[in-house]
Amino acid sequence: MEMYLYIALFAPFVGSLFAALFSASPKTLIAGIVPSALLFVSFLSSLVLLIHAMDGNTVHVEMMTWMAAGDLYIPYGFLVDQVSATMMMVVTIVSTIVHIYSIGYMDHDKSFNRFFAWLSAFVFSMMILVMSDNFAGLFIGWEGVGLCSWALIGFWYHKESATWAANEAFIMNRIADLGMLIGIFLLYWSTGSLQYDTVFAQIGSVEIAVVTTIGIFLFIGAMGKSAQFPLHTWLADAMEGPTPVSALIHAATMVTAGVYLVVRANPIYDLIPDVGYFIACLGAFVAMFAASMALVNRDMKRIIAYSTLSQLGYMFVAAGLGAYWVALFHLMAHAFFKALLFLGAGNVMHAMNDELDPFKMGGLRHTMKGTFIMMTLASVALAGIFPLAGFFSKDLILEVSFIEHHYILYTMLLLTAGMTAFYSFRLVALIFHGEERYKLFGFHPHEAYKYMLIAMSPLALLAVIAGAFKMTYFEMVTKVLPMTEYHIHNPTVYWIMTIGTQLFVIACILYAYRKYEVAKEDKKMEENIGYKILWNQYYIPHLYDEYVAKPYQELSRIFWKDIDMKVVDATVDMVANVFYKTGEKTRGMQNGNLSSMLQWMVVGLVVMLALAAVYSIATSLVAG
Amino acid sequence: MFEAIAFYLFAFLTIAMFYITVMSKHALYAMTALAAGMIFISAFFFMLGADFLGAVQIIVYSGAVMALYAFGMMFFDSTRELKEKTTPSLLVFGLGGMAALMTVIIVAAPIVSNNMTAAYPIVEGVGNTQAVGMVLFTKYLIPFEVAAVMLLVAMISGIVLAGKKMDVSLTLVEDDDLPQTDKENKKAES
Amino acid sequence: MEIGLNHYLVLSTILFAIGLLGVMRRRNLLMLFFATEILLNSVNIAFAAISHFYGDLSGQMFAFFVIAIAASEVAVGLGLLVVWFKRSGSIDLETLKSMRG
Predict the structure, then answer these.
(1) Which of A5, A95, B29, B74 has the most CB atoms at less than 10 Å from its CB?
(2) Looking at residue A254, what DSSP letter applies?
(3) Domain ranges of chain C
(4) Which residue in B91, B95, B102 is closest to A613 by CB distance?
(5) Is the per-residue pLDDT at A580 higher than 70?
(6) A596 inside 8 A of chain C by CB
(7) Scanning every residue of chain B, which has its alpha carbon at the shortest distance from the alpha carbon of C13?
(8) Pairwise CA distance, residues A40 & B163, whole Å
(9) Which residue of A has its CA nearest to C21?
């Protein structure tokens, strides 16, 4: 089993190195095919490990010592239990598909090889993140995915907006990572170890206030990576990257790392239900907040990004309420249909020459049949219609909040579910239905390559059937996660709820269709104050700009002009001047006259003697 | 009592002699005064019971070193008055005095105050020469040999430096002509 | 009146000061050598005195080595002086300005 573990872990790394070999040369098809093939190998190994884990086995290896200093001992240890096996499955499936898809998507890009080097490096980092058996390894993977995400968002670095978005993402993550690092330090400080098993065994004996602090700081890290409010702005801007990157990193894997962290640290969060409740509230708020922004946005990828944000909110609700397995389940299901949605959006972008405004599309279902079917499927799954994946996972979260008697959260999530359905189908209706508006703009859409569609089909299949694995999954994962079954005991309530939700969602879908089947610019609605707020993303980027960036810039200017120029530079100049002037003044000593040299020597002697005398007198006084 | 008289007498004489050495305008006077001062210094050595050292002082300084200086001065036009652009400034005297004062403070203070124990005590009932020999050829054997080698080196170097081209008076040729022999050699070769 | 160590040390210091004065004051290289001889001798007196008053022969030993060094210094120094005199016709310090920086 260890061999499979190493293969699963290192195959993407080898792929990345292989592609990196060609990174400076023009497009080489093999640089795309080899990493994809290696990822497929990684996927197969993960599958073996998953089957192994299903039987209740875990694989725990210690490759070598990483740090050993005093009491600190951190090995390169890897753990495949049911949770990480699930994550590995998700990561390898989605990334394999995205890799194959990218061969077609990045076909005409100059930096084809570089793209694959970074993409595989990302998968490797992600694998470290999920497979590590200690918090330090997790943190390394955490930073690794951050780095790769930075490189991939800013992949088209010649675009100013792309580099800006990349830096924004990186810096926001950095702020959050500091929180996480503090959390990890506190963990080490209070338990003396960073290994999961040791930490979780000892966390019970730690003072509850410390545990709360740890929980909060770790969650700050998770907030950054999973783009929770108020660090959410980077995710929408991260859509500057190539679409496969958005599908892999900003929908399926990296952004869910925060959820994974909370799930992984469940023994900690079990001790502090208050923090958990806060996480749930924040999750519900973000779910609604992001969904509302998606309602009006006119950028296809941003809509999907907000939808991701909203779904992450759902996951945090589940994780915060202690339903860790539900959170993980939604994470898995979401990864499938959201990646599918993004890849579909990528196809549409390709067809429309990178046009992102859905109002300029319409009627594409005739030319892009395959993409249309898949995106509709994904949207249905996202909306949570029976029997697709979203129904099982998302409704479960609704049920969890209902059963835990958090009715406000329940209501918020229900409303969000409606909004989700609305914006998803607003998008579908605008892109694929109605008049063929693109003709006005002179686009000639075409369907993507066959193999890209074939590559996407497993995701479509999974988006449809993932819900069927619910019970298998439940049995497997609860071997490590707290087993809490959520059943509404009153069948009447259960059926009313389920059917009611379904009807509500379907109503929203129909409304979206009706409203956007014929896309007309609704001037009256756009004048509305609510619309404006949503359109400007609640003015949050504006606020950040006004109250964080500008004062900071002002502060930096002050530091530059007043402190750096007047203090630091002046000091340095002064030091230089002192030497310069000293040299100027004392060069007279070097007149080559032996006699004056001797006189100077005597001066030096006298000075030395004086110093020695003072020193000896001082020491004798001290001693006396 | 005699000791005190002797000390002050010789101290006066030494200081006077050395003062003449330093201040005299005639090299010959200076050298003579130096030689006299050296001999007076050996008197202190005898007073201090360092008989051997006193003897050595007379032999080496007044004999060898002074003879060397005398021979050396034969090269230089030493009878004429030395035209020195001396600036006997206060600074020079001040510095000398200061240095002296400091040295006294530093050297004298710890020695006077601390009780030292002799590492190589003077052996009773043995003459100074014998005692010196016992220490010099045991503890200080290697420095002694090294000093001997050093003297040899100095002797050879003195001979080589001073004796080279004794027949050529370098002052009478122009500076440009100095490497003449090399140039001529080269010409001859070509 | 007892003559103690301090007397010798003071004498030694006075002689040293005279030597130092000569070193700083003299412009003639030969005179400079004389002044250094005075410096060395003043130190010798201090060594011998300390040796005597503490009953330790090390001081005398050092005085011997100082004498040896003084002798070799004179030999080498005079040799160099002769060479220099042959070249420049003067043993005045003012002619030694090739080290001007």
Answers:
(1) A95
(2) G
(3) 5-90
(4) B102
(5) yes
(6) no
(7) B100
(8) 93
(9) A599
Reading the block at residue A36, the tokens are 């994809």
Q: Do A590 and C100 touch (CB under 8 A)?
A: yes
Q: Are the Cβ atoms of A609 and B92 closer than 8 angstroms?
A: no
pLDDT of residue A499: 83
3-state secondary structure labels for all residues of C4-72: CHHHHHHHHHHHHHHHHHHHHHCCEHHHHHHHHHHHHHHHHHHHHHHHHHHCECHHHHHHHHHHHHHHH
Q: Do C10 and B49 touch (CB under 8 A)?
A: no
Neighbours of A616 (CB within 10 A): 14
- Provide the residue type at A183 as one letter: G
CA distance A581 to chain B (A): 25
Q: pLDDT digits over B85-139, tens only?
A: 555 567 777 777 777 777 766 666 555 555 555 566 666 666 778 888 888 888 8
How distant, in Å, are the alpha carbons of A50, A236, A462, A597, B85 from that of A241? 32, 11, 25, 72, 85
> Confidence class of residue A286 from pLDDT cuts 50, 70 and 90?
confident
Q: A604: burial class by Cβ within 10 Å (0-12, 13-18, 19+)?
A: exposed
Q: Name the β-bridge partners of B121.
A: C56
Q: How far is A587 from chain B (nearest CA, A)?
A: 20
Task: Tell me the C-alpha distance between B101 and B81, whole Å.
Answer: 33
Q: What is the CATH number of domain C5-90?
A: 1.10.287.3510
Integer Cα distance of B146 and C61 in angstroms? 14
Residues A307/A239, Cβ–Cβ less than 8 Å: no
Q: Secondary structure of A444-469 in the HEC alphabet? A: CCCCCCHHHHHHHHHHHHHHHHHHHH
**pLDDT tens digit string along B14-50?**
999 999 988 888 888 888 899 999 999 999 999 888 8
Q: CA of C75: how far to CAs of B72, B156, C66, C86, in Å?
A: 10, 9, 14, 17
Q: Taking the mean position of all CA atoms in its chain, how far away is CA C23?
A: 9
Q: Does C17 touch chain A (CB under 8 A)?
A: no
Instruction: State whether residue C96 is helix, strand or coil.
Output: coil
Are the beta carbons of A467 and A381 closer than 8 angstroms?
no
- What is the phi/psi pair of residue A139, to 5°? -65, -40
A598 to C24: CB separation less than 8 angstroms, yes or no: yes
A610 interaction partners in chain B (CB closer than 8 Å)? 102
Contacts of B127 (CB under 8 A, 6+ apart): B51
Q: Which amino acid is at A613?
A: A
Distance from CA of B77 to the nearest CA of A (A): 21
Phi–psi pair at A489, nearest 5 degrees? -75, -30
pLDDT reading at A437 higher than 60: yes
State both tokens at B106: 């530093």
Chain B residue closest to A620 (CA)? B110
Secondary structure class of A356 (helix, strand, coil): coil
| Residue A179 and residue A220 in contact, taking contact as beta carbons nearer than 8 Å | yes
Q: What is the DSSP letter of C93?
A: G
The mean of the pLDDT values for chain A is 83
Residues of A engaging B, defined by a Cβ cutoff of 8 Å: 599, 602-603, 605-606, 609-610, 612-613, 616
Q: Helix, strand, or coil here: A52?
A: helix
Cβ within 8 Å of A, C 70-99:
93-94, 96-99
